Amino acid sequence: MASEIVVLPGDGIGPEVTRAAVATLQAVGRRYGHDFRFQTHLIGGAAIDATGEPLPAATLAACRQADAILLGAVGGPKWSDPSATVRPEQGLLALRQALGLYANLRPVRPHPVALGASPVKPHLLAGVDLLVVRELTGGLYFGEKQRHADRASDLCEYSVLEIERVLRRAFGFARARRGKLVSVDKANVLETSRLWRETATRIGREEYPDVALDHQLVDSMAMHLIARPRDFDVVVTENLFGDILTDEASLLAGSLGLLPSASLGDGRRGLYEPIHGSAPDIAGRGIANPFATMLSAALLLRHSLGLEEEALAVELAVAAALDSGALTADLAAPGQAVSTQAAADAVLERLEPRCHVAELRD
Ligand SMILES: NC(=O)c1ccc[n+]([C@@H]2O[C@H](COP(=O)([O-])OP(=O)(O)OC[C@H]3O[C@@H](n4cnc5c(N)ncnc54)[C@H](O)[C@@H]3O)[C@@H](O)[C@H]2O)c1
Ligand SMILES: CC(C)[C@H](C(=O)O)[C@@H](O)C(=O)O
Ligand SMILES: [Mg+2]
To answer: Is the distance from the beta carbon of residue 276 to the nearest atom of ligand 1 less than 6 Å?
Structure first.
Protein backbone atom coordinates (compact mmCIF):
# COMPACT_ATOMS: atom_id res chain seq x y z
CA MET A 1 0.00 0.00 0.00
CA ALA A 2 1.23 3.50 -0.81
CA SER A 3 2.26 5.89 1.97
CA GLU A 4 1.30 9.54 1.47
CA ILE A 5 3.96 11.95 2.68
CA VAL A 6 3.32 15.69 2.71
CA VAL A 7 6.49 17.74 2.25
CA LEU A 8 6.63 21.29 3.62
CA PRO A 9 9.99 22.82 2.62
CA GLY A 10 9.25 26.25 4.14
CA ASP A 11 11.86 28.99 4.23
CA GLY A 12 15.61 29.67 4.27
CA ILE A 13 17.57 26.42 4.26
CA GLY A 14 14.27 24.50 4.59
CA PRO A 15 14.03 23.62 0.86
CA GLU A 16 17.74 22.67 0.70
CA VAL A 17 17.63 20.20 3.59
CA THR A 18 14.15 18.88 2.76
CA ARG A 19 15.28 17.93 -0.71
CA ALA A 20 17.97 15.72 0.82
CA ALA A 21 15.44 14.09 3.15
CA VAL A 22 12.97 13.39 0.33
CA ALA A 23 15.83 11.85 -1.64
CA THR A 24 16.56 9.68 1.39
CA LEU A 25 12.99 8.42 1.52
CA GLN A 26 13.01 7.82 -2.24
CA ALA A 27 16.20 5.78 -1.93
CA VAL A 28 14.68 3.76 0.91
CA GLY A 29 11.53 3.21 -1.14
CA ARG A 30 13.56 1.88 -4.07
CA ARG A 31 15.83 -0.31 -1.96
CA TYR A 32 13.05 -1.88 0.11
CA GLY A 33 10.24 -1.78 -2.47
CA HIS A 34 7.92 0.74 -0.77
CA ASP A 35 5.56 3.07 -2.60
CA PHE A 36 6.10 6.48 -1.01
CA ARG A 37 4.08 9.30 -2.60
CA PHE A 38 5.06 12.91 -2.03
CA GLN A 39 2.96 16.07 -2.22
CA THR A 40 4.64 19.42 -1.62
CA HIS A 41 2.74 22.25 0.06
CA LEU A 42 3.31 25.78 1.29
CA ILE A 43 3.96 26.81 4.89
CA GLY A 44 5.58 29.72 6.70
CA GLY A 45 6.96 32.76 4.93
CA ALA A 46 6.68 31.14 1.50
CA ALA A 47 2.97 30.59 2.19
CA ILE A 48 2.50 34.18 3.42
CA ASP A 49 4.06 35.47 0.20
CA ALA A 50 1.86 33.26 -1.97
CA THR A 51 -1.45 33.35 -0.08
CA GLY A 52 -1.23 35.84 2.78
CA GLU A 53 -1.47 33.02 5.36
CA PRO A 54 1.29 31.00 7.09
CA LEU A 55 -0.79 27.80 7.06
CA PRO A 56 -3.09 27.81 4.02
CA ALA A 57 -6.23 25.67 4.25
CA ALA A 58 -4.96 23.46 1.39
CA THR A 59 -1.79 22.67 3.34
CA LEU A 60 -3.66 21.76 6.50
CA ALA A 61 -6.15 19.63 4.55
CA ALA A 62 -3.31 17.73 2.86
CA CYS A 63 -1.57 17.18 6.21
CA ARG A 64 -4.77 15.81 7.73
CA GLN A 65 -4.95 13.20 4.92
CA ALA A 66 -1.27 12.26 5.02
CA ASP A 67 0.44 9.34 6.73
CA ALA A 68 3.32 11.62 7.69
CA ILE A 69 4.60 15.16 7.21
CA LEU A 70 8.19 16.21 6.60
CA LEU A 71 9.05 19.84 7.27
CA GLY A 72 12.19 21.91 6.65
CA ALA A 73 11.96 25.15 8.60
CA VAL A 74 9.98 28.38 8.67
CA GLY A 75 10.81 32.01 9.30
CA GLY A 76 13.37 34.60 8.37
CA PRO A 77 14.17 38.31 8.48
CA LYS A 78 11.79 39.11 5.63
CA TRP A 79 8.81 38.29 7.86
CA SER A 80 10.24 39.23 11.27
CA ASP A 81 9.28 42.88 11.62
CA PRO A 82 7.99 43.28 15.22
CA SER A 83 4.91 45.07 13.88
CA ALA A 84 3.98 42.22 11.51
CA THR A 85 0.58 40.74 12.28
CA VAL A 86 1.19 37.49 10.40
CA ARG A 87 4.33 35.44 11.06
CA PRO A 88 5.73 32.26 9.48
CA GLU A 89 6.14 30.62 12.90
CA GLN A 90 2.36 30.88 13.47
CA GLY A 91 1.90 28.42 10.61
CA LEU A 92 4.05 25.79 12.28
CA LEU A 93 2.44 26.28 15.69
CA ALA A 94 -1.04 26.09 14.17
CA LEU A 95 -0.13 22.87 12.36
CA ARG A 96 1.22 21.22 15.52
CA GLN A 97 -1.91 22.22 17.41
CA ALA A 98 -4.41 21.32 14.68
CA LEU A 99 -2.95 17.81 14.42
CA GLY A 100 -2.74 17.37 18.20
CA LEU A 101 1.00 16.67 18.10
CA TYR A 102 1.69 17.13 21.79
CA ALA A 103 4.79 14.97 22.21
CA ASN A 104 7.95 16.18 20.53
CA LEU A 105 10.80 13.66 20.61
CA ARG A 106 14.31 15.08 20.30
CA PRO A 107 16.93 12.33 20.55
CA VAL A 108 20.56 13.30 21.22
CA ARG A 109 23.19 10.64 20.54
CA PRO A 110 26.53 12.22 19.67
CA HIS A 111 28.44 10.62 16.82
CA PRO A 112 32.24 10.44 17.38
CA VAL A 113 32.55 13.45 15.07
CA ALA A 114 31.09 15.47 17.96
CA LEU A 115 34.27 14.86 19.93
CA GLY A 116 36.01 17.32 17.62
CA ALA A 117 33.12 19.67 16.89
CA SER A 118 31.56 20.06 20.34
CA PRO A 119 32.78 22.64 22.84
CA VAL A 120 32.03 20.04 25.55
CA LYS A 121 35.02 18.03 26.78
CA PRO A 122 35.30 14.67 24.91
CA HIS A 123 35.42 12.53 28.05
CA LEU A 124 31.97 13.90 29.02
CA LEU A 125 30.46 12.97 25.66
CA ALA A 126 31.34 9.29 25.39
CA GLY A 127 28.20 7.18 25.85
CA VAL A 128 25.73 10.07 25.82
CA ASP A 129 22.32 8.83 24.65
CA LEU A 130 19.39 10.90 25.78
CA LEU A 131 15.87 11.58 24.59
CA VAL A 132 14.14 14.86 25.32
CA VAL A 133 10.35 14.67 25.25
CA ARG A 134 9.10 18.22 24.85
CA GLU A 135 5.43 19.10 25.41
CA LEU A 136 4.46 20.80 22.15
CA THR A 137 0.91 22.14 22.18
CA GLY A 138 0.54 23.98 25.49
CA GLY A 139 2.20 26.41 27.85
CA LEU A 140 3.31 29.92 27.01
CA TYR A 141 3.23 29.29 23.28
CA PHE A 142 -0.53 28.79 23.21
CA GLY A 143 -1.85 30.81 26.16
CA GLU A 144 -3.78 34.02 25.67
CA LYS A 145 -1.60 36.85 24.38
CA GLN A 146 -2.21 40.51 25.02
CA ARG A 147 -0.46 43.54 23.69
CA HIS A 148 -1.00 47.09 24.93
CA ALA A 149 1.03 50.18 24.17
CA ASP A 150 3.04 49.93 27.38
CA ARG A 151 2.84 46.23 28.34
CA ALA A 152 2.30 42.76 26.98
CA SER A 153 1.52 39.33 28.40
CA ASP A 154 1.60 35.65 27.45
CA LEU A 155 -0.41 33.31 29.63
CA CYS A 156 1.25 30.06 30.67
CA GLU A 157 -1.43 27.46 31.24
CA TYR A 158 -1.40 23.67 31.52
CA SER A 159 -4.24 21.30 32.35
CA VAL A 160 -3.69 18.02 34.20
CA LEU A 161 -4.76 16.18 31.07
CA GLU A 162 -2.13 17.93 28.93
CA ILE A 163 0.57 17.12 31.47
CA GLU A 164 -0.53 13.51 31.96
CA ARG A 165 -0.55 12.59 28.28
CA VAL A 166 2.96 13.82 27.54
CA LEU A 167 4.28 12.35 30.78
CA ARG A 168 2.84 8.94 29.92
CA ARG A 169 4.69 9.07 26.60
CA ALA A 170 7.91 9.99 28.37
CA PHE A 171 7.49 7.30 31.05
CA GLY A 172 6.78 4.78 28.27
CA PHE A 173 10.01 5.67 26.46
CA ALA A 174 11.95 5.55 29.73
CA ARG A 175 10.58 2.08 30.49
CA ALA A 176 11.63 0.86 27.04
CA ARG A 177 15.10 2.41 27.38
CA ARG A 178 17.21 2.56 30.56
CA GLY A 179 14.38 3.14 33.05
CA LYS A 180 15.29 6.70 34.07
CA LEU A 181 13.16 9.82 33.67
CA VAL A 182 14.04 13.36 34.66
CA SER A 183 11.14 15.80 34.71
CA VAL A 184 12.26 19.40 34.31
CA ASP A 185 10.26 22.31 35.68
CA LYS A 186 10.50 25.58 37.59
CA ALA A 187 8.40 24.45 40.56
CA ASN A 188 10.14 26.86 42.93
CA VAL A 189 8.41 29.75 41.10
CA LEU A 190 5.69 28.68 38.66
CA GLU A 191 2.25 27.32 39.56
CA THR A 192 2.12 25.41 36.25
CA SER A 193 5.38 23.73 37.24
CA ARG A 194 4.01 22.73 40.65
CA LEU A 195 1.06 21.08 38.90
CA TRP A 196 3.51 19.45 36.47
CA ARG A 197 5.66 18.07 39.31
CA GLU A 198 2.68 16.77 41.32
CA THR A 199 1.29 15.07 38.24
CA ALA A 200 4.64 13.50 37.34
CA THR A 201 5.05 12.18 40.89
CA ARG A 202 1.54 10.69 40.93
CA ILE A 203 1.79 9.02 37.52
CA GLY A 204 5.22 7.68 38.36
CA ARG A 205 4.03 6.20 41.64
CA GLU A 206 0.74 4.78 40.32
CA GLU A 207 1.61 3.67 36.79
CA TYR A 208 5.39 3.46 36.35
CA PRO A 209 6.90 2.37 39.71
CA ASP A 210 9.65 0.58 37.76
CA VAL A 211 10.91 3.87 36.26
CA ALA A 212 13.26 5.97 38.42
CA LEU A 213 11.81 9.50 38.39
CA ASP A 214 13.80 12.59 39.32
CA HIS A 215 12.82 16.23 39.23
CA GLN A 216 15.18 18.97 38.20
CA LEU A 217 14.73 22.73 38.07
CA VAL A 218 15.25 24.06 34.57
CA ASP A 219 18.01 26.53 35.40
CA SER A 220 20.27 23.96 37.04
CA MET A 221 19.26 21.43 34.35
CA ALA A 222 20.78 23.77 31.75
CA MET A 223 24.08 23.31 33.59
CA HIS A 224 23.78 19.56 34.33
CA LEU A 225 23.00 18.84 30.67
CA ILE A 226 26.46 20.02 29.70
CA ALA A 227 28.33 19.02 32.88
CA ARG A 228 27.09 15.39 33.12
CA PRO A 229 25.10 14.54 29.96
CA ARG A 230 25.77 10.80 30.30
CA ASP A 231 23.59 10.65 33.43
CA PHE A 232 20.40 11.35 31.47
CA ASP A 233 18.16 8.83 29.76
CA VAL A 234 14.74 10.42 29.09
CA VAL A 235 14.10 14.06 29.94
CA VAL A 236 10.54 15.42 29.85
CA THR A 237 9.60 19.06 30.06
CA GLU A 238 7.17 21.76 29.05
CA ASN A 239 7.10 23.52 25.71
CA LEU A 240 9.41 26.52 26.20
CA PHE A 241 11.94 24.77 28.44
CA GLY A 242 12.19 21.94 25.91
CA ASP A 243 12.77 24.35 23.05
CA ILE A 244 15.67 26.00 24.84
CA LEU A 245 17.25 22.90 26.40
CA THR A 246 17.37 21.06 23.07
CA ASP A 247 19.19 23.83 21.21
CA GLU A 248 21.62 23.66 24.13
CA ALA A 249 21.78 19.86 23.80
CA SER A 250 22.81 20.27 20.16
CA LEU A 251 26.22 21.28 21.52
CA LEU A 252 26.60 17.71 22.75
CA ALA A 253 26.11 16.48 19.19
CA GLY A 254 28.47 19.10 17.79
CA SER A 255 25.94 21.01 15.66
CA LEU A 256 22.35 22.11 15.52
CA GLY A 257 22.45 20.60 12.04
CA LEU A 258 22.49 17.07 13.47
CA LEU A 259 19.42 16.92 15.71
CA PRO A 260 16.15 15.52 14.31
CA SER A 261 12.69 15.52 15.83
CA ALA A 262 9.39 13.70 15.69
CA SER A 263 6.13 15.35 16.80
CA LEU A 264 3.50 12.80 17.72
CA GLY A 265 -0.08 12.72 18.92
CA ASP A 266 -2.31 9.78 19.74
CA GLY A 267 -2.45 8.39 16.21
CA ARG A 268 0.34 7.32 13.85
CA ARG A 269 0.47 10.51 11.81
CA GLY A 270 3.46 12.62 12.81
CA LEU A 271 5.36 15.72 11.82
CA TYR A 272 9.09 15.32 11.29
CA GLU A 273 11.52 18.22 11.23
CA PRO A 274 15.03 19.14 12.24
CA ILE A 275 15.16 21.06 15.51
CA HIS A 276 17.02 23.91 13.83
CA GLY A 277 15.46 26.87 12.05
CA SER A 278 15.70 28.43 8.62
CA ALA A 279 19.31 29.60 9.21
CA PRO A 280 18.98 32.82 7.19
CA ASP A 281 22.72 33.47 7.64
CA ILE A 282 23.63 30.52 5.39
CA ALA A 283 20.45 30.05 3.30
CA GLY A 284 20.79 29.66 -0.47
CA ARG A 285 24.51 28.85 -0.38
CA GLY A 286 24.29 25.06 -0.51
CA ILE A 287 26.30 24.65 2.70
CA ALA A 288 23.65 23.70 5.28
CA ASN A 289 23.97 20.40 7.09
CA PRO A 290 21.19 18.11 5.74
CA PHE A 291 21.68 15.33 8.31
CA ALA A 292 19.18 16.57 10.94
CA THR A 293 16.44 16.48 8.29
CA MET A 294 17.61 13.14 6.86
CA LEU A 295 17.57 11.73 10.42
CA SER A 296 14.06 13.18 10.82
CA ALA A 297 13.12 11.11 7.76
CA ALA A 298 14.42 8.06 9.69
CA LEU A 299 12.12 8.96 12.59
CA LEU A 300 9.24 9.25 10.09
CA LEU A 301 9.94 5.72 8.86
CA ARG A 302 10.03 4.44 12.44
CA HIS A 303 7.15 6.26 14.12
CA SER A 304 4.59 6.87 11.36
CA LEU A 305 5.27 4.04 8.91
CA GLY A 306 6.45 1.38 11.37
CA LEU A 307 9.54 0.63 9.23
CA GLU A 308 12.20 0.02 11.88
CA GLU A 309 14.75 -1.73 9.65
CA GLU A 310 14.54 1.08 7.08
CA ALA A 311 14.86 3.75 9.82
CA LEU A 312 17.98 2.03 11.14
CA ALA A 313 19.42 1.80 7.63
CA VAL A 314 19.12 5.60 7.28
CA GLU A 315 20.65 6.20 10.71
CA LEU A 316 23.55 3.85 9.92
CA ALA A 317 24.07 5.50 6.53
CA VAL A 318 24.26 8.95 8.14
CA ALA A 319 26.72 7.63 10.76
CA ALA A 320 28.82 6.07 8.00
CA ALA A 321 28.79 9.31 6.00
CA LEU A 322 30.02 11.18 9.07
CA ASP A 323 32.68 8.51 9.62
CA SER A 324 33.83 8.98 6.04
CA GLY A 325 34.41 12.69 6.69
CA ALA A 326 31.46 14.05 4.69
CA LEU A 327 31.19 17.09 6.94
CA THR A 328 29.47 20.36 6.13
CA ALA A 329 30.91 23.68 7.33
CA ASP A 330 29.28 23.49 10.78
CA LEU A 331 31.34 20.35 11.55
CA ALA A 332 34.39 20.42 9.29
CA ALA A 333 37.84 21.79 9.95
CA PRO A 334 38.53 25.03 8.04
CA GLY A 335 38.90 24.36 4.32
CA GLN A 336 37.61 20.78 4.61
CA ALA A 337 33.83 21.32 4.33
CA VAL A 338 31.67 19.59 1.74
CA SER A 339 28.42 20.98 0.30
CA THR A 340 24.88 20.05 1.38
CA GLN A 341 24.56 17.98 -1.76
CA ALA A 342 27.87 16.13 -1.29
CA ALA A 343 26.99 15.35 2.33
CA ALA A 344 23.57 14.08 1.28
CA ASP A 345 25.11 12.00 -1.52
CA ALA A 346 27.47 10.36 0.98
CA VAL A 347 24.36 9.05 2.78
CA LEU A 348 22.43 8.10 -0.36
CA GLU A 349 25.36 6.13 -1.81
CA ARG A 350 25.36 4.01 1.32
CA LEU A 351 21.61 3.43 1.15
CA GLU A 352 21.51 2.69 -2.54
CA PRO A 353 24.85 2.49 -4.39
CA ARG A 354 25.28 4.92 -7.32
CA CYS A 355 22.38 7.05 -6.12
CA HIS A 356 22.74 10.85 -5.91
CA VAL A 357 20.47 13.70 -4.84
CA ALA A 358 20.56 15.32 -8.27
CA GLU A 359 19.33 12.11 -9.91
CA LEU A 360 16.53 11.75 -7.41
CA ARG A 361 15.18 15.24 -7.86
CA ASP A 362 12.32 14.18 -10.10
N1 LIG B 1 11.11 24.46 13.21
C2 LIG B 1 11.34 25.61 12.63
O3 LIG B 1 10.84 25.88 11.55
C4 LIG B 1 12.23 26.61 13.29
C5 LIG B 1 13.08 26.25 14.35
C6 LIG B 1 13.90 27.22 14.92
C7 LIG B 1 13.91 28.51 14.41
N8 LIG B 1 13.08 28.82 13.38
C9 LIG B 1 13.10 30.14 12.74
O10 LIG B 1 14.31 30.25 11.99
C11 LIG B 1 14.70 31.62 11.91
C12 LIG B 1 16.16 31.75 12.31
O13 LIG B 1 16.31 31.44 13.67
P14 LIG B 1 17.71 31.33 14.43
O15 LIG B 1 18.76 31.98 13.59
O16 LIG B 1 17.51 31.75 15.80
O17 LIG B 1 17.99 29.75 14.52
P18 LIG B 1 18.51 28.73 13.43
O19 LIG B 1 18.34 27.38 14.00
O20 LIG B 1 17.87 28.98 12.11
O21 LIG B 1 20.08 29.06 13.30
C22 LIG B 1 20.95 29.14 14.41
C23 LIG B 1 22.41 28.97 13.95
O24 LIG B 1 22.61 27.60 13.61
C25 LIG B 1 23.04 27.47 12.27
N26 LIG B 1 22.34 26.32 11.67
C27 LIG B 1 21.05 25.99 11.84
N28 LIG B 1 20.76 24.90 11.12
C29 LIG B 1 21.89 24.55 10.47
C30 LIG B 1 22.21 23.52 9.54
N31 LIG B 1 21.32 22.60 9.15
N32 LIG B 1 23.47 23.47 9.08
C33 LIG B 1 24.40 24.35 9.46
N34 LIG B 1 24.15 25.36 10.32
C35 LIG B 1 22.90 25.45 10.82
C36 LIG B 1 22.61 28.76 11.58
O37 LIG B 1 23.41 29.03 10.45
C38 LIG B 1 22.74 29.78 12.71
O39 LIG B 1 24.08 30.25 12.79
C40 LIG B 1 13.73 32.38 12.83
O41 LIG B 1 12.76 32.97 12.02
C42 LIG B 1 13.13 31.32 13.71
O43 LIG B 1 11.84 31.61 14.16
C44 LIG B 1 12.27 27.90 12.80
C1 LIG C 1 9.98 28.27 15.09
C2 LIG C 1 9.55 28.05 16.50
C3 LIG C 1 8.09 28.34 16.64
C4 LIG C 1 9.89 26.63 16.98
C5 LIG C 1 9.48 26.46 18.44
O6 LIG C 1 9.79 27.31 19.29
O7 LIG C 1 8.83 25.44 18.73
C8 LIG C 1 11.34 26.20 16.87
O9 LIG C 1 12.20 26.96 17.66
C10 LIG C 1 11.47 24.73 17.18
O11 LIG C 1 12.28 24.39 18.04
O12 LIG C 1 10.78 23.92 16.54
MG1 LIG D 1 13.59 25.80 18.73
So the answer is: yes
